[in-house]
Specification:
The complex is a heterodimer of chains A (108) and B (223).
Chain A lengths: L1 H16 L4 E10 L6 H11 L9 E7 L2 E4 L5 E2 L13 E4 L4 E9 L1
Parallel strand pairs in A: 1-2
Antiparallel strand pairs in A: 1-6, 3-4, 3-5
Chain B lengths: L2 E9 L2 H16 L3 E7 L5 H11 L5 E7 L4 H7 L4 E6 L8 H9 L8 E5 L16 E7 L6 H4 L1 H5 L3 E5 L11 H11 L4 E4 L8 H19 L1
Parallel strand pairs in B: 2-5, 2-6, 3-4, 3-5, 6-7, 7-8
Helix pairs in contact in B: 1-4
The chains are: A alpha+beta (108), B alpha/beta (223).
Chain lengths: 108, 223
């Protein structure tokens, strides 16, 4: 819910800056390590945006994957593991923690 | 009326990060070491803080006790005579840097050595909200099931200390403490992992040893 709230606040701010009458569509990029469920985010956003300029806006969510890599042998992983299964090295995570408002499409 | 498309490129989590850095700056300038105590509901976070403030007689200790609506945790810690304030989140399931920022405005930081911030009991939401702490402690107990660590990888990955509490009850609830320990080790090889039972005084010395070491290294840094 806090993520939906901060999204709405920023969308409304951008829309007002451009003198929009209605927000039609919103594009965001969400890091997978935030472990947000896009459907839940969409639902929360739908609920809190009612009665605002962003009501009924289409929310497009792109999930951005973190780089999960072994520090020793450089093996890449899809999901987080602490220790590399090949060489026993420590696996580090880069990125995947951002939530970026990319584009706002609106009627002015 | 016509349509326009704006490239906003707004970092939506920037505000929390900015305020967390601001909190960190304020606390470090005052020489305060700050510890964010996170963990499951009923895992023993408040008891850990209570026992710790009683043992740390040679340091000036403060505590901010986060909770949804209640002030029970605050009362438990404040009765030990340390500076403490409650911090209610309302419906929110985690503390954030903004709430802590306002709490710090009301908190007397003068002469304080260490500040504990007890987060809301939750292993998911608090992870992504840096409060401006120096260290993160994550506490779970065997009664939550021995798969509780592997089911919440992110909070353990980012912890400095992982505490597995109530180990004396492990047999009664058929929990495998070694599995929990190994799961924590696998997710976070760098963390200090402590098997504890606060009511039986198991592992508490190990925790105090870590804490004193953390506080002394800070003093060393400031000198």
């Amino acid at each position: 819910m806090s993520f939906a709230q901060v999204l709405l606040e920023n969308v409304v701010k951008v829309a007002e800056q451009h003198g929009a009458k209605r927000v039609k569509s919103i594009q965001i990029a969400v890091g997978n390590m935030l472990m947000l469920n896009p459907e839940q985010l969409r639902f929360c956003f739908d609920v809190i945006s009612r009665g605002t300029i962003a009501e009924d806006a289409n929310l497009e969510i792109e999930v951005v994957k973190a780089k999960i890599r072994c520090m020793i042998c450089g093996k890449d992983f899809d999901e987080f593991v602490g220790v590399c299964d090949e060489c026993g090295g420590i696996v580090t995570v880069e990125g995947g923690k951002d939530m970026i408002l990319k584009k706002v499409e609106m009627e002015v | 009326m016509h349509k326009i498309e704006v490239d906003a490129e707004v970092d939506l989590l920037e505000e929390n990060r900015r305020l967390a850095e601001e909190n960190r700056r304020i606390l470090r300038e005052r020489g305060v070491t700050t510890i964010n105590v996170m963990g499951a509901i009923g895992s023993g976070k408040t008891l850990l803080i209570e026992k710790t403030v009683k043992s740390l007689k040679d340091f000036k200790v403060g505590a901010i006790l986060g909770d949804v609506i209640a002030k029970d945790d605050y009362k438990r810690v404040a009765r030990h005579g340390v500076r403490a304030i409650p911090l209610n989140t309302g419906k929110e399931c985690h503390l954030d840097a903004h709430l802590v920022h306002h709490a710090l405005e009301d908190f007397d930081l003068n002469g304080l050595d260490v500040l504990f911030i007890e987060n809301v009991g939750n292993l998911i939401c608090p992870v992504d909200f840096d409060l401006g702490e120096d260290y993160r402690v994550v506490m779970v107990s065997v009664t939550e099931g021995d798969d509780v660590v592997s089911k919440h990888p992110e909070i353990f990955r980012l912890a400095d200390v992982i505490i597995i509490n109530k180990v004396a009850l492990a047999d009664a609830v058929e929990a495998d403490v070694e599995k929990m320990f190994n799961d924590a080790k696998r997710l976070n090889p760098k963390a200090k992992i402590i098997k504890m039972d606060l009511k039986k005084d198991v592992g508490f010395d190990e925790w105090m040893e870590w804490l004193r070491c953390a506080l002394q290294s800070r003093e060393g840094l400031l000198r």
